[in-house]
Specification:
The protein has four helices and no strands. With about 80 residues, it is mainly α. It has one domain.
Length: about 80
Amino acid sequence: MDLTRQVETIDSREDLVKFIEALRNDLAENREDWENPTLDRFLEAMAAWVQSMDGYYKNWELPVPDSPSWKTVAEILIAAKQYE
């Protein structure tokens, strides 16, 4: 399943674990598609995205989460894959 679609199905801790495993596999198989393939760059992008994530939700006309859900954690992780 496409990672972006998989994020939409996350509803539990187990779903998030499966997503993290899929994300790791995607890095191993498609490293060239990742903007942030090193831990250092990934964590830097993750922090930057979390800091500005309200804009993402507002741009997509979605409610800004008050507290993160399992799905929100996955959204943060997949954003860090590409965020500049």
